[in-house]
Structures are given as C-alpha cells and as structure tokens.
Amino acid sequence: MAGKAILKGISLTIGPGEVHAVMGPNGSGKSTLAAVLAGREGYDITAGEVRYLGQDLLDLDPEERARAGLFLAFQYPVEIPGVNSTYFLKSALNEQRKHRGLAELDAMEFLKLVKEKIKLLDLNEDLLKRAVNVGFSGGEKKRNEIFQMAVLDPTLAVLDETDSGLDIDALRVVSEGVNKLRGPGKAQLVITHYQRLLNHIVPDYVHVLMEGRIVRSGGKELALELEDRGYDWISRELQLAA
Amino acid sequence: MDTRPFARLPGDRLVFLDGHFVPGLSRVGTGPEGCVVASLGAAFQTHAGLLEKHLTRYARGSANPFTALNDAYFTDGALIHVPAGQVIEHPVQLVFVASGEEEGRAQHVRNLILAGAGSQFTVVEHYLGRGNATTVTNAVTELVAAEQVVMDHLKFQDETRAAYHFAAVHAELGRASQVNLHSFALGSRLSRHNIHTALNGEGLECVLNGLYLTDGDQLADHYMVVEHAQPHTASHEYFNGILEGRSRGVFHGRILVRPGAQKTDAKQTNKNLLLSDDATVNTKPQLEIYADDVKCTHGATVGQLPPEQIFYLRSRGLPLDTAQRMLIHAFAGEIIDRVRCAPLREELDRLLWDRLEQDAQIQVGPHASSSCRTN
Questions:
Q1: Residue A122 lies in a domain
Q2: What's residue B63's pLDDT?
Q3: Domain chopping of chain B, boundaries
C-alpha cells in the first residue's frame, strides 16, 4: 500500500458531548481515519492536523492519546493469548489514572467498577478471567470493546464499525451500552458502513466519506437518505457538479 | 536451600550434591503408603528387584554416547515407584546441585520413575549450580507409565553460566495414559535435552511442553523423538523460545509413526521470540511416517512481538515497554499454563516473571494463569 493516498480531505469538528457518524462505502477510508486518530503505525501523515483538546494529536504516541482520553473501539479486536483480561484492563486504567494525577484503583475498587460496568453490556463476567479476546465470539469481542470503553471512560470514543459482525440482538445490546456512555463532555465518533447502527445510536451529525473525502455533512436524516438511496446517488451528484 | 525455587512446596524431596545423595536436606515419606521415593543407593537395598528389572532397560546407551557414559558412571539418582491407583498430591522433587567447587567436576545421575496403572503424580527435576567453576551434568531419566497414568514430569534446568548440561528423558507410555513432559531451560552455558517418548498403547495422549529462555552466549538445545508405536495415539509438542543477546536455541522434533500406528494425531509447534539482532534459532521438524491414516502437523515461527498486539495494548494507555513485557510474559505463560499442578504452576510463573524482570528491570504485574485441571 506504500505511496497510496487514502485520506485526502477531512474537515471535521466534534464538540464536547456530540455524537458524529461517519458513513461511507467500502474502501472510502473509514478505518484509516480511525487508525490515524488512534496512532496506528504504517500511515504517513503528509498534510493536515488533528487538534484534540488544544493538543496536536498526531504528535502523541498511542498511549499518550489514550491517557488524554481518546479511545478506539477496534473493528477487529486483537486476541492477546496469555494476557489476562482483568489484569490488562486494570493496568490500562491505572496507567491512565496515574497520568491524570488520580489515585490508582486497588483490586477491590477495580472489581466494583467492573461489576457495575459489565452489566451495561450484558457480558459474562467469566470472560474477564480469560486472555484478552481469546475464545470470545465475534459479538463478545465487540461487547468487550464497549465494556473497556465504559471502564476507561474516554472523552472521545472512536467506534470503528462496531456493528460489523453483530446480529440484531447483539447490536441492540452494544448500542444501548454506547448510549449509556453518552453524556456532557463525552463525544463519540461512530464509523459505520450501514445505517442500521444509527437507528440505535442516534447521531447529532452525519458525514459521508467517499474516496478519502468528506463529501457531505448533515443531520441524522442524511443517514436515512443514504439507507434509502445508497451511496451511488451522492457519487452521481458529485460527478455532475464536477 | 530455603530460598531455592520450589523449596516452599510440601511433599517428598531428594537432594543430591554433585551426584551424591544428601539425606539431611531430603524429606521422604510424606506420600501415601506403598509409594517409594528413594535414592538409588538406598533402593538397591530395598527394591533390588525393581531396579534389576527396569534400570538402564529403556534409555539406550547404544543410541546416545552421553547415555552410555551415564550407564558407566552414574553415582546415584532417584527411584520413584507409585503403585497402581495411587495418587500423590504434592510434586515429588528431585534436586540436583552442582557445587561448582572444583573445575571440571562432572555429575552423572540416573533416575527411574515407575508409574503403576491409574496412578497420578507430578515429578520435578530441578538442576541448579553454585560457584563459577565449569561443571558438567549428565542426567538420564527413565520413565515407565502403565495404563491410565496421569502424570507431569517437569525438568527445570537453571545451572550456572559456566555449566554444561546434558540430559535425557526416555518415557515408555501405556494405554490411555496422559503424560506431560515439561522442560524449562534457563541456565547453563550449553544445554542439551533429549526426550524420547515411546507411545505404546492405544488412546494415550502425550504432551511435550518446553520453554527456553536464553541470553549472552547460551545455547539451549532440545532434541525430541516421539515414537507412535500403536494406533490411536496423540502427541503434542509445544516449545517456545525467548532469546536475547547472541544466544542460540535449537528445536529438533522428530515424529516417528511406526507401521500400523493408524489414527496417529501428532502436532508440533515451535515458536520463537528473538529479542536481539544476534540471537539465533535453528528449528527442525522431522516427520517419518510408515502408516497411511495419520494426522501430523508441524509449525514453526521465528519473529518479534506482534505489532498489532502491541498497538492494541498501547491504544489503551499502556506504555510501549510495559506492552512488550506483557507479551513476553504471555508467551512464556502459554507454556507455564500447561503444567497441571497448580502450586507448581504458580511457582513457575513467579520464577519466570522474576527472571524476565531481572533482564528488563521494568515493573509489571503477575501473569494471570488459567484454571487448572487437576489438584
């Protein structure tokens, strides 16, 4: 993929507490946007900047972004054999708290937090005794991402195709979990191919990403229009305009 | 001795210094009645018949010069005899200490483990050394497991960096047995461990499970022959290596399927983590199959820590060095988790964490182990 320009024109401002949806067809650059925001290696930023709470986000390591309150819910959560889920999450949370000048949680305090948050996602507590994402079903992996989000309580959560691979019941559970995490000062960027997720997670704004550009922005009704008419309609309009 | 790894575990323990039994540091008689845990020297008085029948009958000196040397020179070692149906709760420990008091001193030790039908127990062979002198260890263990035996044999090799360590385990396994042979190679300048398992009865399952952790100019060499002699037998080899410095690891795994050993299921996995530019691994699977209805697989990997796993951990706020350390521990943990005896597994876990911490001087928490199946 070396040398291929993927994102070419993204201008997006997310205010505190806002939920933005980015929709687009396959190959439009949705997951690249998520990866670049979270700091995944393998992408060259040739131009542009990302300001996050007054900081240059692109200047930060992935862990620094997380500590600053950014969270990425992975499209494909990574299995990490041998690393216990509870231990991993407790370490991550305490690392973040440490950097924010907060006291680290001890085992009991953490357990209490886990018990409270795990209910949101209807997740089996036994999963937390296993290695990270190992032996989890597709739906459990996605719920686990949102569970981690609930525990880490980010300022900006980027949800990368969280709906993919979910059946309708799991979609409902995950969406309800995400919705409960909405709040003042808690922004969400929901990246999805399908409108159906947005029936459950109702965004304040919808943006359409095509060929690396945001070609249209609007309210939640834009998502419905896309569902109705597909993406081709926008392509055609763009061609006409050109 | 109290600070020695495994020292806090209860149960029988035989201690040998430079190949000679030390009764004062040993403890016997904690197991059920009828079980024998004794030095060979003592056993020649009390169980001559058993030794006559089994000792030196399985490991072939003609096939291995070190075994031949051991046949000629062994000074002592252990007899463990667990009669049919007996269960020993705590691991039986055999501790072999090289004093390192004299340059070039060699210890030749010999062990015989006889597991009666349906018996269940765990044996630990712990090799360690003192001092800076160059020492040589040449150990041979013969293991005979009757039908339906469930046992773990664990060798923990942690001799000094001036030591040369040669060892062999020869196991004869019976019908429907479940025997796990573990090898942890941490110490010695040069170590070579030969494991030969003869799968002699239907429905048995044998696991060879190993971890080598090397740095500096160490060489850790494992040479395995798994011989499927009867139909419907399963073997799984899992060896992980973590290598730093200019060290070298060798994995040589040979699966031999005898004529008529149909429905053999043999799996072999060797994974290596190279943490420096100059570390080397030689991995060599070998399949020799004389039956036509068998399943044999092998796989080997040599590489660095998976970047996608590192990114996942960092994306949750963990610093790079912690993420790396977690993954290295997890890699070792895959092997540790196969040790069935929980207290032993926890002790190993702690030991290996400590060892990896010494190398890294990075603060991390304990590896979390999965549930245990027995004990």
A1: no
A2: 86
A3: 13-305, 306-375
- Identify which of B190, B184, B287, B199 has the alpha carbon closest to the alpha carbon of residue B238: B184
Restricting to A residues 57-116, those with a Cβ less than 8 Å away from any Cβ of B are: 61-63, 65-67, 71-72, 74, 77-78, 80-84, 86-89, 91-93, 95-96, 99
Choose the closest CB to A82 out of B317, B320, B331: B331
* Backbone region of residue A228 per phi and psi (left: phi > 0; alpha: psi in -120 to 50; beta: other values): alpha
Residue B360 is predicted with a pLDDT of 58
Closest CA to B133 of B166, B108, B104: B104
Domain that holds residue A67: 19-82+155-241
For residues A71-95, give the mean pLDDT. Answer: 96
> Residue A25 has which token pair?
């067809």
Those residues whose C-beta lies under 8 Å from the C-beta of residue A36, and which sit 6 or more positions away, are: A7, A43, A45, A50, A58
B158 near B352, Cβ under 8 Å? Answer: no
| A26 backbone dihedrals φ, ψ, rounded to 5° | -60, 140
ipTM of predicted complex: 0.95
CB contact under 8 A, A61 and B366: no
> How does strand B234-243 pair with strand B135-145?
unpaired
- CA angle centred on B289, ends B285 and B292, rounded to 5°: 135
Distance CA B155, CA B169 (A): 9
Beta strands in B186-331 (DSSP E): 190-199, 205-214, 219-228, 234-243, 248-257, 265-274, 280-289, 295-303
Averaged pLDDT, A105-129 = 91
Contact call for B320 and A39, based on CB within 8 A: no
- Give the pLDDT score at B1: 54
Q: For residues A182 and A154, is the Cβ–Cβ distance under 8 A?
A: no
pLDDT tens per residue across span B251-287: 999 999 999 999 999 999 999 999 999 999 999 999 9
B206: helix, coil or strand? strand
Q: Which amino acid is it at B229?
A: A
Structural domain includes residue A185: yes
* DSSP string across B319-375: -HHHHHHHHHHHHHHHHHTT--BHHHHHHHHHHHHHHHHHHH-----PPPP---SB-
Q: Contact, B370 vs B349, CB < 8 A?
A: no
> Would you call B349 an interface residue with chain A, using a CB distance cutoff of 8 Å?
no
DSSP secondary structure code for residue B27 in this structure: B
- A13 lies in some domain: no
Number of domains in chain A: 1
Q: First-to-last CA distance in chain A? A: 28
Which CATH number goes with the domain that contains A34? 3.40.50.300
Residues of A in contact with B314 (CB under 8 A): 39, 61-63, 66
